[in-house]
Specification:
This protein is of the alpha/beta class and 245 residues long. The protein contains seven helices and 13 strands. Strands 5-4-1-6-11-8-12 form a seven-stranded mixed beta sheet, with helices on both faces. A two-stranded antiparallel sheet has the order 2-3. The chain is globular. The chain starts with 11 loop residues before the first strand and ends in a 10-residue tail after the last helix. 36% of the residues are buried.
Length: 245
């Protein structure tokens, strides 16, 4: 008699929640950026919901600025049964890579996922994880082609304007967050490291970093204008990242 396949537990998810949110300083003087609300719920709640919808249940919030407020949020929320949300104060000024390094003991020496507390997408996290596992990379980074802030003019070779395109997608791919990491990556990071610089650059140079292309919706809340856009989408009932019921 054949045995049923063993269902493996999905990796822990580390969420970077420690920055000051300087571009939103008027709002982050009283609360940390992850607690700025979209549709009446903190944006980090939306990020966690995206992972919950895919079956992830273990979360580590890497806090810093106004850490106590994020801890109060995590402790006071009614999470689905079986969900674990723990907070690790990784320091007030610690950069992104350093936060992961400080929290290494909470990641259990296992493969883990990581993301930012201010980015939402209709991403297929199972496909991301499967791509990471299939190719055996040390790290996989989701990349996106963001919508440009302005419309662009299309020119011919003589300088005549052929027409306009309203806010097209960039031709270039950028870091969209939503990472998968093998534990060996933490060995490349010290407490002063900015994840997006030397660690990722070194992994790329060593051909140990893969890109997972996400072509659907993606946005991050860097500015007040971004928060208005995300709130408007939520209010319309057509928020693309709301993949949960």
């Amino acid at each position: 008699m054949s045995q049923a396949p063993v269902k493996r537990e999905l990796p822990k998810v580390a969420i970077l929640c420690g920055g000051r949110g300087t571009p939103l300083r008027e709002r982050t003087q009283s609360i940390p950026k992850p607690l700025i609300e979209i549709g009446g719920r903190p944006i980090v709640w939306h990020v966690i919901q995206i992972y919950l919808a895919h079956g992830f249940r273990r979360f580590v919030l890497l806090t810093g600025y106004k850490a106590e407020l994020i801890e109060e949020f995590a402790a006071g929320e009614q999470w689905p049964e079986g969900t674990m949300v723990e907070c690790v104060n990784t320091g007030l000024e610690t950069p992104t890579g350093g936060r992961l390094r400080v929290a290494a003991d909470f990641l259990d020496g296992q493969r883990f996922c990581a993301t930012y507390a201010d980015g939402v997408a209709d991403i297929d996290l199972h496909a991301l994880l499967a791509d990471h596992v299939e190719h055996g990379a040390a790290a996989t980074m989701t990349v996106v082609q963001p919508e440009l802030q302005f419309g662009v003019a299309e020119l011919n070779g003589d300088g005549l304007v052929r027409g306009f395109v309203e806010k097209p997608r960039s031709e270039h791919w950028i870091n969209g967050g939503f990472f998968c990491f093998e534990p060996s990556v933490l060995e490349l990071i010290d407490e002063n490291a900015v994840l997006e610089r030397e660690p990722l650059e070194r992994l790329a140079a060593e051909q140990r970093l893969r890109a997972y292309r996400h072509e659907g919706f993606w946005d991050c809340m860097d500015t007040y204008k971004d928060s208005v856009l995300l709130n408007d989408l939520w209010a319309s009932g057509e928020a693309p990242w709301k993949i949960w019921t």
